[in-house]
């Protein structure tokens, strides 16, 4: 009798693994993931060409990953051809929390030409890392985020405890990924919805 019950438990466990998939057991409890893939090479600039994006949201953390075709060790910042206070670089994720088709919040690392001399440096040392509340075509600063680079992937993390606004971003929010580069003569971008 004990062997029969043990066999039934094992069979139920196997059926759960099959029906949920292994990823259901590997995803931390409370995390919901969104993953999207993009066509590689659809943008000529490799450091803004999105290959894939993913978002994991728990009750306490929003974690976003943007994988690019290539991330160079250094880039040129404050290009004299780019206007002062103009956006030069941006990598980010936007969230539609109220399901109206428009972004409501964005997590990004960005560089605006700050009026200083042209310089060469790494992305993380030369960008601001923020959450923005988006209304129309403008944004209001919400809080700072953590950012890192792992190979060709930019990782953005926001702790929900840093701002009550972040509680609005849930696993039901639709994520879209974007990149931007302005060289003063042309503007390049990639988007993954």
Walk me through what this model shows.
The chain has helices at 2-20, 22-26, and strands at residues 32-37, 50-57, 61-68, 75-77, 87-96, 105-112, 119-121, 128-135, 138-144, 146-150, 153-159, 174-182, 187-192. Residues 5-30 have low confidence and may be disordered. With 193 residues, the protein is mostly beta strands. It contains two helices and 13 strands.
Output the keywords:
193 residues; 2 helices; five-stranded antiparallel sheet; single chain; six-stranded antiparallel sheet; mainly beta
Q: CA-to-CA gap between the ends?
A: 54 Å
Number of helices: 2
CA radius of gyration is: 20 Å
Outline the low-pLDDT stretches: 5-30
Q: Can you count the beta strands?
A: 13
Largest sheet: 6 strands, antiparallel
Outline type: globular
Q: Give the oligomeric state.
A: single chain
- The helix content, as a percent range, equals 10-25%
Strand-residue proportion: over 45%
Order of helices and strands: HHEEEEEEEEEEEEE
How many domains is the backbone divided into? 1
Q: Output the strand order for the largest sheet.
A: 9-8-6-5-12-13
Counting helices, strands and paired strands, the structural category is mainly beta
Q: What is the mean pLDDT?
A: 87
List the topology elements.
Blueprint: H1 2-20, H2 22-26, E1 32-37, E2 50-57, E3 61-68, E4 75-77, E5 87-96, E6 105-112, E7 119-121, E8 128-135, E9 138-144, E10 146-150, E11 153-159, E12 174-182, E13 187-192
Write a concise synopsis of the structure shown.
The protein has one domain. With 193 residues, it is mostly beta strands. 12% of the residues lie in helices and 46% in strands.
